Amino acid sequence: MDEQILTQGRFAGWTFAYEGKAKRLYRSPEGDRYLVRFKDDATAFNGKKRGQIESKGIVNSRISSLLFRLLEEHGVETHLLEEVGPGQMLVRAVEIIPLEVVVRNLTTGSLSRRLGLPEGRPIDPPLVEFYYKSDALDDPLVYPEHAGLLGAAREEEVVRLRELALQVNGVLQAFFQQLRIVLVDFKLEFGRADGRILLADELSPDTCRFWEAGTGRKLDKDRFRQDLGQVEEAYQEMLRRVEAGATGRVASSAGMGGGGR
Fold it and tell me: Which of 33, 68, 72, 110 has the greatest count of CB atoms below 10 A from its CB?
């Protein structure tokens, strides 16, 4: 049971702030940090389909933390402060910008349905789309020019969101290519903090589409959406590959640093 006020350990006195489809958030007494607890709950089609995926919270928290660290190494600021336990991370408080930024490298999902395009067609250059975060409106696709009308973001912020989304795409594509994973598309959320825009939320099989190179096997939440089975196995496989890739990067960096100048 999650109490309104945490009473034990490092986070004693932190208060419950918010519960979404995939996470619970607790606010620090100072209001500058949040403890994020990832849930095993699974939803699709804006909550119309619901279920549970065993250990999903642990998998998504770990993958998100590793990918956030990777992106920070390449100059993308994120809200992550540290991992604090299985399925939990400590993050900076940010003012979430109510725009979901979707980057598409291959056609699938709602894009294929909207435009009648076959699944798997390469998109070059990558397509960046904006969706207004509103459950009541079913998160509608919006033009960048709509952001100001909605009060969601200023024009210069929308430009920056697009730049950051493409930067994230470049870093992640290179990383996953080494793991024999195709990064099909993914959703990003950003927040404002101290005049900066930081990457927030998560990067996981919940928010990204991953296909195994060569086989096309789906290793993401589409297995839940489409009743493909082996959902837990797909999430665990992605965790295994991301951890192996992150370990390989650390080992490679250490090896390069050990030589003479």
Answer: 68
Q: Which long-range contacts (CB under 8 A, 24 or more apart) does 129-136 make?
A: 129/101, 129/102, 129/103, 129/104, 130/99, 130/100, 130/101, 130/102, 130/158, 130/161, 131/99, 131/100, 131/102, 132/98, 132/99, 132/100, 133/96, 133/98, 133/99, 133/100, 133/189, 134/98, 135/46, 135/47
8 neighbors 61 (Cβ within 8 angstroms): no
Contact 165, 200 (CB under 8 A): no
- Report how far apart the first and last C-alpha atoms of the chain are (Å, whole number): 55
Q: Answer whether 40's CB lies under 8 Å from 54's CB.
A: yes
The whole-angstrom separation of Cα 49 and Cα 113 is 19
Residue 10 DSSP one-character state: G
Both tokens of 256, joined, read: 């390069």
pLDDT in tens, 25-76: 999 999 999 999 999 999 988 777 899 999 999 999 999 999 999 999 999 9
Cα atoms in the Cβ-side hemisphere of radius 13 Å centred on 162: 16
Task: Give the CA count within 13 Å in the CB-facing half-sphere of 146.
Answer: 11
Residues 43 and 49 sit within 8 Å (Cβ to Cβ)? yes
Domains and CATH numbers, the chain: 9-92 (3.30.200.20), 95-230 (3.30.470.20)
108 Cβ contact partners less than 8 Å away, ≥ 6 residues apart: 119, 120, 184, 185, 209
The answer to whether the pTM exceeds 0.85 is yes
Token pair belonging to 4: 């309104």
Residue 46 CA to residue 66 CA, distance in Å, equals 27
pLDDT beyond 50 at 147: yes
Q: Which residue has the tokens 């993050």?
A: 91
